Hints:
The chain contains nine helices and four strands; from the N terminus they run βαβαββααααααα. It is an alpha+beta fold and 279 residues long. It has helices at 54-68, 91-96, 119-130, 138-167, 173-196, 207-220, 228-232, 238-248, 251-258; strands at 46-50, 76-80, 104-107, 114-117. The protein starts with 45 loop residues before the first strand and ends in a 21-residue tail after the last helix. 45% of the residues lie in helices and 6% in strands. The structure holds glutathione.
Amino acid sequence: MTDSAEYTPPKIWTWNKASGGRFATINRPIAGPTHEKELPVGRHPLQLYSLATPNGIKVTVMLEELLALGHAGAEYDAWFIDISEGEQFGSGFVAVNPNSKIPALMDRSGPAPVRVFESGAILLYLAEKFGAFLPAGPARAECLSWLFWQVGAAPYLGGGFGHFYAYAPAKIEYAIDRFAMEVKRQLDLLDRRLGEAAYLAGNAYTIADMAVWPWYGGLAKGRLYGDSAEFLQVQDYKNVQRWTDAIADRPAVKRGRMVNAADQLRERHDAGDFAGRTT
Length: 279
Ligand SMILES: N[C@@H](CCC(=O)N[C@@H](CS)C(=O)NCC(=O)O)C(=O)O
């Protein structure tokens, strides 16, 4: 990396391993496995390979919500994937998610295992499999619109704002300004929508809320990116605050947040694993 603010890109980009910043050690310009490693398989129909990041929490919350509704087929084993150690590049993990990112799900309930990757796709797969948290009729379109909005919008929050505000090796005003503006716009968008309806798709809590809450609810409560809550003045988004609190109160959300967290429940294999634990 050059220190100069006046960086002129070379004709051909080459991989400079010393590019710096948090996560520099796991970023690389090629896909595929770096090493051979099989994944463990537990006794339940669903095998989740994940970590309690905002993307990971979406799925563990959904699974806990399904179990709370009585869907016994949603029982799952959740395995801890340490992305800081490069476990997402093991051959077994890459076979479940060729994109090498958590969360990744293997459904072993049928005659042949089905792999599902991308958190939005996993939420939709589970909602359709169990007929839950995805409304019918016009609310379905609204739900899918917000679900797809989230998977498109979050990289501006995490990869854009979060990266340049908290993780980049240098504070670059242009980059922080650009992404702070976009994230404030996103928060305002959500605030306006949540001023019209209790939840993103309407009156009911759906997979759209499960996708958006870990990111924008986390941001609204100061759980992401250092001092960003003050920097972005997140308390001003009153409807986002109300919605964030309502979802945080759900028992399944409290359980889902603990799963695959290094300091909580690294692995989850049974409902009894939560006993005696609090968020
Ligand atoms: N679009 C993906 C993003 C998943 C993602 O970025 N996962 C991160 C953790 S939150 C990860 O596994 N990073 C490891 C890496 O990039 O090597 C999704 O929604 O599932």
